[in-house]
User: Which sequence fits this backbone?
């Protein structure tokens, strides 16, 4: 059994994907060009934002957004400790300080009710993460940001395609970033990412920064990086994007089937106004070791997102956090695990997972 059925997905779209790849190889336009321009137009259209800027990964998308917003040493950015490392890593990489706020025990997303007490004179932005495919309460977060004159950056690496009150993830904040890492809801065949915003000036700044701070070749006006997406990945994404709505519907069906049949587990509560894309299907169990072992014995792949919350990572020692600071994140990290999830998992596979987890 696969954790994510990337091979079944490829076999289904093979003719379309292979022809995109062949076209890139036959024209030798490997960097940028029409494939990337088409992808950006398709992404903006899908998300509803004015601008979509393709880039080299979800990590570079976060880095470039922070850079373009001018966030730097001495600044603070509020985020969740229960996320993939890159979120806080990029805040630290631009020299700013990640300030953590615990998660909500129902959704596992940042607890918006606790954000205001973490705001200081140095706070520049709030970076909620749409964890496991579900968007945080953006209305509440945007209101807090507006009141304190802060930017909101949605880390939408896990939520491309998700909606809140019918609005797509990526179009609910000043700027948003996503990842096309193969395991994400919309994945390419390598690394890739994108940034979304409807702020013209910010979009321009991001574009300059992802191309070595240059608008005109060999004329550099800013400090940036090589953050470009290549044409092969863009071609692959253009195909996969046309199938995404269908896959999202299938993922929801798979999740609901798990919801109905798994016993004695708790799962993130999906808010009524949200449609999750279930980037992961995570459960909290009483005896994680036993359940993991039972799955392993039956050839069922599992994962743990995330075993160590970020405030307890050794690299962030100097931030001064300690065990007990974020009790919800800590408790969830101790008993959470992820089950196989994709649009291509079969009923038989799901039944085996359900039986195994329930028995354990
Ligand atoms: C995957 C992920 C990233 C990083 O994306 P990459 O494309 O792997 O660089 C950032 N934040 C979150 C929440 C993620 O899940």
Assistant:
């Amino acid at each position: 059994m696969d954790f994510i059925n990337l091979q079944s997905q490829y076999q289904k779209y093979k003719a379309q994907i292979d022809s995109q790849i062949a076209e890139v190889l036959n024209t030798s336009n490997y960097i940028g060009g029409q494939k990337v321009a088409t992808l950006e137009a398709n992404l903006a259209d899908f998300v509803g934002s004015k601008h979509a800027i393709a880039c080299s990964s979800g990590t570079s998308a976060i880095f470039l957004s922070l850079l373009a917003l001018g966030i730097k040493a001495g600044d603070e950015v509020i985020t969740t400790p229960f996320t993939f490392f890159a979120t806080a890593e990029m805040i630290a990489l631009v020299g700013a300080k990640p300030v953590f706020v615990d998660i909500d025990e129902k959704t596992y997303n940042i607890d918006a009710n606790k954000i205001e007490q973490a705001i200081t004179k140095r706070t520049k932005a709030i970076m909620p993460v749409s964890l496991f495919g579900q968007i945080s309460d953006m209305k509440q977060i945007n209101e807090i940001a507006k009141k304190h004159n802060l930017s909101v950056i949605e880390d939408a690496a896990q939520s491309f395609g998700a909606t809140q009150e019918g609005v797509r993830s990526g179009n609910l904040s000043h700027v948003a970033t996503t990842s096309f890492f193969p395991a994400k809801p919309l994945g390419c065949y390598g690394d890739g990412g994108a940034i979304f915003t409807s702020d013209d000036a910010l979009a321009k700044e991001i574009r300059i920064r992802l191309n070595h701070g240059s608008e005109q070749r060999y004329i550099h006006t800013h400090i940036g990086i090589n953050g470009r997406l290549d044409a092969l990945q863009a071609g692959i994404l253009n195909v996969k994007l046309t199938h995404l709505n269908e896959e999202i519907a299938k993922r929801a069906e798979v999740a609901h089937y798990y919801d109905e049949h798994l016993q004695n587990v708790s799962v993130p509560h999906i808010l009524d106004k949200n449609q999750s894309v279930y980037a992961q299907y995570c459960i909290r169990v009483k005896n994680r070791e036993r359940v993991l072992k039972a799955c392993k014995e039956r050839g069922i792949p599992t994962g743990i997102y995330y075993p160590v919350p970020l405030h307890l990572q050794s690299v962030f020692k100097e931030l001064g956090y300690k065990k007990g600071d974020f009790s919800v994140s800590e408790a969830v990290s101790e008993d959470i695990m992820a089950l196989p999830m994709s649009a291509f998992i079969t009923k038989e596979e799901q039944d085996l997972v359900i039986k195994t987890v329930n028995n354990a």
